[in-house]
Amino acid sequence: MGKSQFDFEKGVNLALDPNLLSLPSKKSPSSPNAADQQKEPIVPPATAQEINELVSNPYEIYGKMPLAQLVPLILQQKQIPFSELSQDYILKETSEKVMDSNDAMDNEPQLPDNSKSNFSTMDASESYETIRSKMIDHINVAMNESSLALETVSLLLSGVRENNAKSSISPYLKRNVPMGSLNSDRIPINNSNNVKKTNEKIKFSFGWKLKCLDDSKLMLKKNVDKLFEIVRRENKYWQMISQVIVNTDVIFKLRDKLSGERLIGIKYGFEDSGSNYHLDRGIAVLKNNTELNQLELIPYYNNKNFSIHDSNIRIGYTFIRIRIFTKIESEDDFILSGESSITNNDSTNIRDQIKKFKDIIFEKELMYQLKKESSQLISYGVKIENENKIMIELPNEKIEIELLQVDDLSTVMNEQDNPKINDKRANLILITLRLLLVVIFKKNLRRRSTTNSISNHNGSYSEDILLIRPILGKLRHQNYKILLKKIIKQNILDIIESSQCQEIKITRKPNNDTTRTVDKHIDKLNKDIASFDNLINTPVSHFEVSLPDRKDSFKLVLESPNYCNAIISVKYKDPLNDNRAFDAKFTELKEVEEFLYFIITEYILKKETEEHIPIKQEH
Amino acid sequence: MQPQYVRERLDSLECIDLKLCTMLKEASQVVFTFSEIKKGNVDLKRQFENHVKGFYNNLEEATIRLRNEIKLLDENTGTRLLPISVNKKNLGQDEEKLAEQVTLLANVLQDVKNEASTEPLMKDEDEDVLMDG
Q1: Residue A85 forms part of a structural domain
Q2: Domain residues for B26?
Q3: Locations of Polar residues compositional bias (chain A) (predicted)?
């Protein structure tokens, strides 16, 4: 009882739980936690407070509180909404409290707890104040410090970025301290431990360095071995190249399109020697076969997909073979009577291989040109049987020109076992064809060096291809000659006694276009070409039939202006009569025969019996 | 076959290549002995020295030889070598072929004469060619 009395006398009767004070004023007082907790304990102290109202001024406690905080506290204590808080209500309540105060004092056992809590609440309220003021102090100090720091930073900054510094520096400092007057530098902290640590580090990395050295030694060793190997290979390659290549060879740098490998190319085509053949440029690659350690010659084709590493490049044998078939009179069939020989030029020697490549490209071009020429000669029995075969048909024989492309020579060689009667002829024809192609080259060279324009040499000179025609012309001419001789014999020699037929050798004067040129090379070309004139010139035969008794004679000239045809001109002059002269040209032997028969019967035979007024006849 | 001079140059260039390779080999030995010495194998110091010497000797020799080759290259430009690169023409192959075929022809005709057989094909003209060719 006394205890409680003491409490009352103290007059410090806090009606509120101190926890409530921590509630933010803005928060609604009916926060569930707070309400539940305080429902019970609030009521008794409230009564106590009302009692103590008379003793102590509650304003001392709550007066400093702003009304915005106080009113929610009161409302919470009273458990009433703000609308019911009226003066009447408060008066009524205070009077009730006064009346109950005595009763309330009887409830002593309940009070000690409350009074104890009252103590703590009082302490809390005090400490709250002190904490608050302290906090405010701290905040002030912090603000001061931070603004000082800002000033320092700004001043530091003003040395390098004056404009940035100006935006944050205070006007006071700006006025009193010149800008950029503060500077700073970094000073390393000298730590004695560092040396020790570095030493440890060195020891640690020492092993690494040794390992690095060993590794680099191994790497160097490996690369040295590799380089030695490369040097050895290169040296071998160049030695072989220097052995194989002669100064007249045209070699140049190439690059393999697919692998990008650098290569040495060699030109073996005849392009620069007068050929117009563009189907094969005649370029080969000198490749170093590292496995066999020898040079390899591989034809190089300038197309996208070509690679020298293609394994399926096969260099077979390409050559022209001429076969002569002779007609068997009895059976109306042809048998093989002659075949050109085949030289086996197989060799692993690079020089021989280059030679072989040259031969191959030459034979290919020969065939190409032969086909071009043959296309115009179909009316003279020259037929292109297929891509690689040409057949020349003559009355008694056939000449077959064939380009053979085989991988293995032996099969072809075996066929030519026993020599045949026309083998030599076949060889001669083949050689002549080759010589004629060389003549074509020379003519091309002459044209190129004299006209200075290489642009117009494509194709349009197919009439210049003289390969088959000179040979075929000679053969046909020979046949014409035999026929003509036969006609002469039948029509003149057999009829007129002691008449003679003589073939007159005409030495043709050399072509007059060999005008001296300034260039000795062109002179040489002219001379070279001229040496083939006998072969190339169109065949002409002159015959003279003399009639000894009468002193008159026939002159017959057989010409083949396009090599294959025959034009026969017949001249007859009567020595006794100047008016009686004939000069006629025929293209058919039959007509010649008729004409001769006519002259003989009309003039020569008749003249012996009677005089006759001749009629000049011209064809 | 290239002339002696060209082959000499090729050999000399190979020698330079080899020198440079040997130099690299010496370098690897230098690194090796150095690492051994660092491991505590002090006896190898002499070898280390020798290898370093070898390295420099090789370098020197390669340099001298290369300079010499360059000098020779300069000297030969205009005599053996053309100062510009030209597109070399593959001339003379026609002559080559002509000579070859004429030889063949001579052989065939020789055979013909030896056999004394008369060939029906008139090849008299070719003999003229033979004279001229």
Answers
A1: yes
A2: 1-71
A3: 112-123
* Other residues' Cβ atoms within 10 Å of the Cβ of residue A14: 23
Q: Is A452 left (phi over 0), alpha (psi -120 to 50) or beta?
A: left
Residue A438 in contact with partner chain B when CB distance is under 8 A: yes
Question: Is residue B111, in this structure, part of any structural domain at all?
Answer: no
- How many Å lie between the alpha carbon of B12 and the closest alpha carbon of chain A? 10
Q: Is residue B79 part of a domain?
A: no
Q: How far apart are CA B20 and CA B62, in angstroms?
A: 6
- Residue A12 maps to a domain: no
The enclosing domain of B17 has a CATH number of: 1.10.287.3490
Contact A534 B125 (CB under 8 A): yes
- Give yes or no for a contact between A333 and A397, defined as CB atoms under 8 angstroms apart: no
Residue A257: enclosing H or E segment and its boundaries?
Answer: none
Sheet with strand A262-267: strands edge to edge = A250-255, A262-267, A283-289, A294-299
CB contact under 8 A, A246 and B1: yes
Q: Do B94 and A438 touch (CB under 8 A)?
A: yes
Q: Are residues A231 and A255 in the same domain?
A: no
**Total count of domains within chain A:** 4
Asked if the C-beta of A327 comes within 8 angstroms of chain B's C-beta atoms, the answer is no
CA distance B53 to chain A (A): 17
Token pair listed for A232: 């050895």
Q: How many domains does chain B have?
A: 1
* A496 in Cβ contact with A548 (< 8 Å): no
pLDDT digits 0-9 by tens, A245-290: 887 788 888 887 777 778 888 888 888 888 888 877 788 888 877 7
Q: What is the pTM of this model?
A: 0.63
- Put simply, whether B83 touches A (Cβ < 8 Å) is no
The secondary structure of chain B, three-state, reads CCCHHHHHHHHHHHHHHHHHHHHHHHHHHHHHHHHHHHHCCHHHHHHHHHHHHHHHHHHHHHHHHHHHHHHHHHHHECCCECCCCCCCCCCCHHHHHHHHHHHHHHHHHHHHHHHCCCCCCCCHHHHHHHHHC
